[in-house]
Amino acid sequence: MKFSTNSILSLIVSSCITTNVSAFVPASTFGQRQSARNMVTAIPPLTGSNVGEGAAAGDDWSPESWRTKKASQMPVYDDEEELEGAINELKRCSPLVFAGEVRNLQEQLARAQQGQGFLLMGGDCAEAFNEFNVDHVRDSFRVILQMALVLTFGSALPIIKVGRMAGQFAKPRSEPDETIDGVTHPSYRGDIINNEEFNADARRNKPYNMVQAYHQSAQTLNILRAFSTGGYADISRLHAWNLDFVEQTNEGSRFRKFATKVDESLRFMKAIGVDTSSSTFQQTDFFTAHECLLLPYEEALTRKDSISGKWYDCSAHMLWVGERTREVDGAHLEFTRGINNPLGVKISDKCTPDELIKICETMNPQNIPGKLTIVVRMGAEKLRTNLPGLIRAVQREGKSVLWISDPVHGNTRKTEEGYKTRDFDKIRAELRAFFDVHDEMGSHPGGVHLEMTGEDVTECVGGISEVTEETLKDRYRTYCDPRLNGAQALELAFLIAERMRVRTGLPAIE
Fold first, then answer.
1. What is the rounded CA–CA span in Å between residue 382 and residue 378?
2. Which segments of 114-253 does DSSP mark as H helices, in order?
3. Nearby residues of 135 by Cβ (< 8 Å), 6 or more positions away
4. 10-residue block means of pLDDT along the chain (510 residues)?
5. Angle of helix 235-246 relative to helix 254-271, nearest 10 degrees?
6. Residue 159: which of 34, 61, 67, 48 has the closest Cα?
7. Cβ–Cβ < 8 Å for 315, 290
8. Distance in angstroms (rounded) separating the CA atoms of residues 213 and 194
9. Which of 306, 412, 441, 451 is deepest in the core (most CB within 10 A)?
10. SS3 sequence, 447-469?
11. Cβ-count burial of 355 within 10 angstroms (0-12 exposed, 13-18 middle, 19+ buried)?
12. 303 vs 44: CA distance, rounded Å
């Protein structure tokens, strides 16, 4: 059995103190902790001998059965032969992730559903071919680890770290076409489908972009595995980076006080003889996830595990279905119901309690713990109105789910200059509402899902980095939606940690 850094820290952090948590004051306490197991089982490439042999959801399911359903948000390819060529090439490729890794994640998520963990998901809105480099991956990975350290201390719970990386290329679009100055071309749907430049060749839907996305994802996963196991995740280094962040804050700020308590815990561990140079403190579990949108790509990378005989989508450890593609009788739920990966589904205020129960029964018909995560994106006021009824329905029907907050998507707006942005204060307000509702309902607020980057971009206004509408243009680099920069993401982690610290029965930091 392997004990993660999260688990060791969780045993130490039952120490002192809190900040004035006026932004995140809870009404109840909650919390338990448990370490996670690590298992690895390889899956062979898809071959003629295992194509279409049964499915987790029954004999009527296969990796291609989604083709019999209505598929929303799917690109139209003008060359069927080229499309089949790209799909066949992907079928010959090695899996990007492995069944044992996927099962490890599901076990951790199952414990989180019981209040014994917290899911942290973060990464780019959309990955791009020309932005790929080691530094970009490293910076996002680093900020997620920094956030996880703060959240571990605040919650005394294991933090499950999942990156929106190594596959988050495709994006849903409001309109299939885009018109500029009287010229119309297909909308840009992400580099895995077409390219951003506004001309006929760039906007053509290119099947072999899927192959390029696969190879970039393989490189990203290689980088992530190297960083997560090669010493880059050293807990002392993470804490030093967090100290760099708090140096930007005012003397006596809650961030400085919080960081001081983490430092005291680390010093205490060393004083009692805990070897913080061991692999326990230098390695970490890290998983990947992306939106299950481009079904030909997902189908081509679906494999049957030679040990369990179950189907896994080997493009990522976890996949989620978006608000625009979660039709109960649609192609995306048809595909996901048969794979054994942990799944997520995004819901807004448009989702009714009855509809949510049908989604749960479709995506997780056997009600398997750790299988289904509900990602709530509504805006603060709509969340306070609509989320209680959804939680009540899930509790009444006994559905096994993990509730997490996506506080960014419901808070997007355009400035007068035409920049899409998000307000840090509104993001914080939605997170506060999410925790408040779960306190009222006696349920577990199990995680957070953020569009963010480790880079010092100026895309969301507010927060400690003091981005304003006037400074958005300084470093506005997103290919799609605005992202929190590294400082804003870490500030949110401190705020969540303060709230969770009180919720788990630990004293506030003052």
1. 6
2. 134-155, 200-203, 209-229, 235-246
3. none
4. 44 37 37 31 35 48 97 95 98 97 98 97 94 93 91 92 97 91 95 96 97 98 93 75 70 69 81 79 91 98 95 98 96 98 97 98 97 97 98 98 96 92 97 97 97 93 91 89 93 92 76
5. 160
6. 34
7. yes
8. 11
9. 451
10. EEEEEECCCCCCCCEECCCCECH
11. middle
12. 7
| CA–CA–CA angle 402, 505, 269 (5° rounding) | 95
Distance CA 341, CA 329 (A): 20
- For the chain, the farthest-separated pair of C-alpha atoms sits apart, in whole angstroms, at 72
Q: CA 227 from chain center: how many Å?
A: 18
Q: Where are the beta strands (DSSP E) in 254-389?
A: 287-291, 302-304, 311-313, 318-321, 343-347, 372-376
In the numeric block, the tokens 């992202």 are attached to 483
Q: How far is 313 from 300, CA to CA, in rounded Å?
A: 9
3-state secondary structure string across 63-118: CCHHHHCECCCCCCCCCHHHHHHHHHHHHCCCCCCCHHHHHHHHHHHHHHHCCCCE
CA–CA distance, 222 with 259 (Å, rounded to integer): 31
10 Å CB burial of residue 382 (0-12, 13-18, 19+) is middle
CA angle 216–321–71, rounded 5-degree value: 95
Strands (E), 171-235: 177-180, 183-186
CB 113 within 8 A of CB 252: no
Give residue for tokens 């509402």.
433
Interatomic CA distance for residues 36 and 31, integer angstroms: 16
DSSP 125: S
CA 298 to CA 296: how far, in whole Å? 6
The pLDDT score that the predictor gives to residue 384 is: 98
Measure Cα distances from 344 to 32, 332, 373 in Å.
23, 12, 4
Query: 């596959």: which residue's tokens?
Result: 167
